[in-house]
């Protein structure tokens, strides 16, 4: 019964963090963004079934509080189930021939974080629009127009054609941009939950160092799949764009992990990493592109292992 009690508590906390967003303040938005964290913590620390209980309880609590079944379904599909699924994968393991446990590799976890983020972003669009893709497009265009208005602060700035072209591009890329950011936050929440549960002594697996993160080569099929999906109309095409954005962030994170690993024990490592993150903050798009290409090359060629790095060999995958 222990996992049920903890699941109920986590579900209520997560629901509270979600509904506080109605206050429409910056603090409320920041708190709402943390809603998956309690579910991840109980799922990792007690049992993945605790995460399922938290998901169901949170959905019921939101239904009672808001009187909206759509909000409850949104919580379950967008907050609860992604957190439970990632925790479930993190706890997958099997006993090896020598009696030691082989745990699900964190590189494969990152690949699933990207896939989960892409699916969740599209699910959010489906639920919020009631399954009407034209309504989804209209909302994406509103967001794009608001951004363009910030870029061209004065009406005379930029031609009408330039403003319209930028608006159309941003509206089309909204799923990709949303999945790009959501992949980062899902990965951050999973890492943070793992560190918290590990510090409490309840995490059943050793938490692998982030610099050892290396996605499997099978992920290289995903960009091709994303391209194929973008050729379709409707939410299928939106899923393709979302997958592109999620993969861009995943390869960026792997590129960062590879640099962290390659600079281990090197003199001036702190200075190098500080400079890297400063450049990432100042140049953003340029550095993201460079890091994602480096992460992609690391996946294809195994740069760390091939050129003297200490990157881990990919162990057999338990179950999934």
TrEMBL record:
InterPro entries assigned: DUF2232
Transmembrane segments: 25-44, 73-93, 105-127, 176-194, 238-259, 271-297
Keyword tRNA-binding: no
Protein keywords: Membrane, Transmembrane, Transmembrane helix
Protein's UniProt keywords contain Lyase: no
A family per Pfam: DUF2232
Domain of life: Bacteria
Name of the featured protein: DUF2232 domain-containing protein
Species this protein is from: Microvirga makkahensis
């Amino acid at each position: 019964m222990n996992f049920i009690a903890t699941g109920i508590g986590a579900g209520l906390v997560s629901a509270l963090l979600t509904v506080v967003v109605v206050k429409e303040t910056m603090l409320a938005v920041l708190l709402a963004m943390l809603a998956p964290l309690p579910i991840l913590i109980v799922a990792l620390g007690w049992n993945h079934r605790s995460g399922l209980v938290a998901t169901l309880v949170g959905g019921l609590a939101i239904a009672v509080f808001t009187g909206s079944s759509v909000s409850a379904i949104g919580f379950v599909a967008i907050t609860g189930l992604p957190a439970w699924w990632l925790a479930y994968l993190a706890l997958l393991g099997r006993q090896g021939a020598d009696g030691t446990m082989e745990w699900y590799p964190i590189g494969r976890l990152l690949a699933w974080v990207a896939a989960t983020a892409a699916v969740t972003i599209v699910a959010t669009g489906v639920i919020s629009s009631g399954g009407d893709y034209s309504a989804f497009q209209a909302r994406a265009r509103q967001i794009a127009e608001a951004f363009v208005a910030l870029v061209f602060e004065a009406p005379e700035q930029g031609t009408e054609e330039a403003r319209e072209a930028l608006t159309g591009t941003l509206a089309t890329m909204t799923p990709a941009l949303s999945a790009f950011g959501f992949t980062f936050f899902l990965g951050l929440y999973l890492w943070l939950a793992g560190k918290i549960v590990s510090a409490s002594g309840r995490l059943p697996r050793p938490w692998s160092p982030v610099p050892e993160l290396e996605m499997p080569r099978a992920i290289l099929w995903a960009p091709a799949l994303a391209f194929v999906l973008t050729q379709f109309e409707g939410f299928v095409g939106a899923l393709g764009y979302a997958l592109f954005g999620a993969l861009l962030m995943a390869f960026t994170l792997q590129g960062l992990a590879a640099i962290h690993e390659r600079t281990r024990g090197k003199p001036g490592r702190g200075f190098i990493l500080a400079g890297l993150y400063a450049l990432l903050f100042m140049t953003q798009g340029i550095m993201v592109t460079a890091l994602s290409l480096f992460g992609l090359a690391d996946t294809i060629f195994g740069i760390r292992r091939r050129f003297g790095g200490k990157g881990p060999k990919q162990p057999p995958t338990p179950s999934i």
